[in-house]
From TrEMBL:
Taxonomic lineage from the root: Bacteria, Pseudomonadati, Bacteroidota, Flavobacteriia, Flavobacteriales
Keyword match Chloroplast: no
Gene name of this polypeptide: aat
Family the UniProt entry places it in: Belongs to the L/F-transferase family.
Catalytic activities: L-phenylalanyl-tRNA(Phe) + an N-terminal L-alpha-aminoacyl-[protein] = an N-terminal L-phenylalanyl-L-alpha-aminoacyl-[protein] + tRNA(Phe); N-terminal L-arginyl-[protein] + L-leucyl-tRNA(Leu) = N-terminal L-leucyl-L-arginyl-[protein] + tRNA(Leu) + H(+); N-terminal L-lysyl-[protein] + L-leucyl-tRNA(Leu) = N-terminal L-leucyl-L-lysyl-[protein] + tRNA(Leu) + H(+)
Record-level GO cellular component terms: cytoplasm
Protein name: Leucyl/phenylalanyl-tRNA--protein transferase
E.C. code: 2.3.2.6
Length: 209
């Protein structure tokens, strides 16, 4: 397995393990993170582990035009059940994503180091947040890396039923108008599959990227 040095570089994708691990170590400097995302690589690790860099095969993706919106979600959208904003509370969104309890997950992969790194990317204009509000309360959100033609989704949270899905749908509809051609969902979840995302071979994803 490849151990990164201070050099801002990654090994060839072909060296990725069957589990999807490409390398260990390095740091979360903005330059390294942006290089990673531009090459289909992302960090994912727990607080007691070194930084682990992934490029899974297959890869979960969503073309904006393939977004599926259920009848019940369409009703919520028509009623404007929630208010949606962008980039008004990035730090609160990433912190909420870090602490929310998820089924089958005992620990968070969004470490303090990760929070600080993505907040820095947000200040640089690369990391985007979507906030979902009920009155004045933040009840859901999504954040990710915006490469222009590709949006790399990182995490979402929901304190009310359908809040994160509501925000994600708003995000996809907005991305349709900005020239975004693909949403990188990284790994399969039933939640994302219900919205129209599906898996493709890594080489196909990289050709899109």
């Amino acid at each position: 397995m490849y151990l990164l040095t201070d050099e801002i570089a990654f090994p060839p994708i072909e060296e990725t393990s069957p589990e999807g691990i490409l390398a260990f170590g390095g740091d979360l400097k903005p330059e390294r993170l942006l290089l990673a995302y531009k090459n289909g690589i992302f960090p994912w690790y727990s607080h007691d582990e070194p930084i682990i860099w992934w490029s899974p095969d297959p890869r979960m993706i969503l073309f904006p035009e393939d977004l599926k919106v259920s009848k019940s979600m369409k009703q919520l959208l028509r009623r404007e059940t929630f208010k949606v904003t962008y980039n008004t509370a990035f730090e609160r969104v990433i912190q909420a994503c870090a602490i929310i309890q998820r089924p089958g997950q005992d620990d968070t992969w969004i470490t303090t180091e990760m929070e600080e790194a993505y907040i820095q990317l947000h200040k640089m204009g690369y990391a985007t947040s979507v906030e979902v509000w009920r009155d004045e309360k933040l009840v859901g959100g999504v954040y990710g890396i915006d490469l222009g033609h590709v949006f790399c989704g990182e995490s979402m949270f929901s304190l009310e039923s359908n809040a994160s899905k509501y925000g994600f749908i708003h995000l996809v509809e907005k991305l349709k108008t900005t020239g975004c051609q693909l949403i990188d969902c990284q790994m399969h979840t039933n939640h994302l599959a219900s919205l129209g995302a599906y898996e493709v071979p890594r080489e196909v994803f990289l050709s899109y990227l």
